[in-house]
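Our collaborator T.R. sent over the components below with a one-line note: 'Predict the complex.' Nothing else. No constraints on interfaces, no templates requested, no preferences about which chain binds where. So this is a plain run: every listed entity goes in together, and whatever single assembly comes back becomes the starting point for the next discussion.
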Amino acid sequence: MSKTTTAGLVGDYLHRLDAALGPLPRARRQQLVAEIAEHVRQSLAAEGETSDDTVRRVLARVGPPEDIAAAALAEEAGAGRRPSRWIVVGTMAGLVAVGGALGGVYLTAGSPPGATRRPPPHPTTVLVVPDVTGDAQGAATRALQALGLQVTQLAEPSQSVGAGVVVSQDPAAGARVARGQRVTVTVSSGPPPTTATSSAPGGTAPAFPLGVYVDGPPGTPHYYLSVGQAPDGSLSGALHFLYQDGQTSVVFTFTGTVSGDAGTLKPVTIPQDAGSASQDPSTVPGAVSATFGGNTVLLGECTAYLHFATSLQDCTFTYSSKGVR
Amino acid sequence: MWNIVAGGTNKLLAQMRRGAIEYCVLALLREQPMYGFELAKALAEADGLVTSEGTVYPLLSRLRQDGLLESFWQESTLGPPRRYYRLTTDGRAALEAFLVHWRTFRDTVDTLMERGGAR
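Returned assembly:
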């Protein structure tokens, strides 16, 4: 089977769903897309294989995105007949696992709570899609958004394209689209992680697990940090979040260095719409960084950029290797 | 003429399903919490109750907003944590009330159908 095709089928489906859910409030839309993505992941896991036919069959069972959107809009209109209340969930959690299984990560054009989203102006204007392949993720996103296009990002490991650089886009450059239409950019998350047991240069054993499933304390997200070590000893990796009740999913890509038994990662890309962080990381003082060693990971500035913690102490997580294949 | 009747029947069925489906969700959760995937599967497998698995999620969301269900996260040995749903006290009360009304309604309709010789 082709992982790319599978990821593409699921990605296309989720994009259609996201687009069809356009009239819903952003938070509701993102939550629903995340739930359907998780449903698809579990369905595929239950099938035990992901041939294109299986993926198509699973998606057919989930139903046309337009039907789901119609149901959601009808429910939205009917909600609130009873006094609603906030339900406190134990753990704001949900791993971006579609990506783990399919070789690509679906990202809603995510915003942490509080971020605003501009409505696309003048939906009837026809535009020519520019070529953003080879551009940095942030620059590509800004260029497309400046034209009034919506952007969905997918992350995919790549041997040949550096982390944070756009590998491909859909529709392709030159396509004529209406303003407000969605363009999917696939961004490299760097080389696929190698196995943790590979010997490191200079006899230094890598101090880092190469896939870490991180459990935050109750009320914080779960996320997946994958880190690979290059032959020259440098680190690169990606941090995948899916907030479900926090309503956003984001991928940060990192490069890093090893020092003794601790390591430091600094961001290469910051997802669009991540608060004020839709900027070049180099221009954002103290932008999200991660430090890890022993069994803990400290995410710097997570209070400001990730919007889930109220103090830096909340940004320290203990990791374990569970749930990672 | 046939088309009009059939169309009318479909519309009626759709309305009846719409009215009953949320109580079917509550009933599935009567004994134990379930996670979204299980619920969607169970409802989709019940003949014709939902048009597709995906349409269950908007319903779950609304029931949660209405305070009939609540959700919680539970670790899974097979992957990421799952969002489970369980009845709230209000949800349980709504289900019990529906059951009383439903049984009365069903019996009344059955009785009249039989008296009219419909079966």
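Summary for T.R.: Confidence is low (pLDDT under 50) at residues 1-6 of chain B.
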